[in-house]
Design goal:
The protein is α+β, with helices and mostly antiparallel strands. 47% of the residues lie in helices and 13% in strands. It folds into two domains: 174 residues, no CATH class; 57 residues. The strands form two sheets. Strands 1-4-5-6-7 form a five-stranded mixed sheet, covered by helices on one side. Strands 2-3 form a two-stranded antiparallel sheet.
Length: 254
């Protein structure tokens, strides 16, 4: 197996961060597999990492909006600078009232939600503040849309509960999850989830979602391997293009 397909298959074992991972989980393994396949093929034009770094610096260093906008304008992909700037503006406006930057911040650490022995979903708070003698992790998701279903929202907060709030320091923490989706007018509005706003998945529901991902990942792996093998063994028949009609539909329900 050549290095190109090996790298693609390795991506299956390195899930994205928790908010992105829960978007994979559909009603069954077939819809989940399609979502994973789209992710495997996609090359995102930008990420929200520049804005996240600035928002973190706002909390922990108290930087100004001007400095924050300058920072995002000089980092990341050019295609994402407008989106990152709008997130920074929305977060700083929210912080004028919330005043995260006036609290005593602590160093946050990356934790993980264990899908299987070898597959870990990264979970990381934007920052951790100390407020009224409580340690409060603050999570940020920079999407301009919030397309999560109720089940996916419950899965996300369950992952946070497992990865973060199960730790001794956070067991009694309120916890905050921040989103800034765009309104119909195109402006970002804040959406805050507090710990407890959504019902956690039961153990059986969580197992069901994890099993869907495992089954879906195996379907995608099989499909990718078969398509790669066909492209190697029959390159002249397709003239270098993929013949979708000759591929087995691994996502069709029997």
């Amino acid at each position: 197996m050549d290095s190109s397909i090996s790298k693609i298959l390795a991506k299956l074992d390195k899930p994205p961060s928790a908010p992105n991972w829960v978007r994979f989980i559909g009603d069954d393994e077939h819809s989940t597999a399609k979502a994973i396949l789209r992710w495997i093929r996609a090359i995102p034009p930008f990420t929200y990492q520049p804005a996240a770094r600035v928002c973190k610096d706002r909390i922990e260093l108290g930087i100004s909006l001007r400095d924050g906008l300058t920072a995002v304008d000089r980092s990341g992909a050019p295609a994402g600078r407008g989106s990152n700037s709008s997130l920074v503006r929305a977060f700083f406006e929210y912080d004028q009232d919330r005043r995260y930057s006036a609290r005593n911040p602590m160093q946050s650490a990356r934790e993980y939600f264990r899908v299987s022995r070898d597959i870990l979903v990264p979970v990381e708070a934007l920052s951790v503040i100390v407020e009224e003698r409580q340690i409060v992790p603050v999570f940020l998701c920079g999407w301009s849309k919030l397309p999560l279903t109720t089940r996916q929202r419950r899965l996300l907060v369950t992952i946070y509960e497992d990865a973060y709030f199960s730790l001794t320091d956070f067991q009694n923490s309120p916890g905050e999850m921040l989103f800034f989706p765009k309104s119909k007018e195109g402006e970002r509005d804040s959406e805050l989830w507090m710990r407890g706003d959504y019902q956690l998945l039961t153990d059986s529901e969580l197992r069901e979602d994890v099993e869907k991902f495992i089954l879906a990942r195996d379907l995608v792996r099989k499909l990718l391997v078969e398509r790669h093998r066909d492209s190697v063994t029959r390159p002249d028949e397709t003239d270098g293009t993929k013949d979708e009609g000759r591929q087995p539909d691994l996502f069709r329900k029997e």
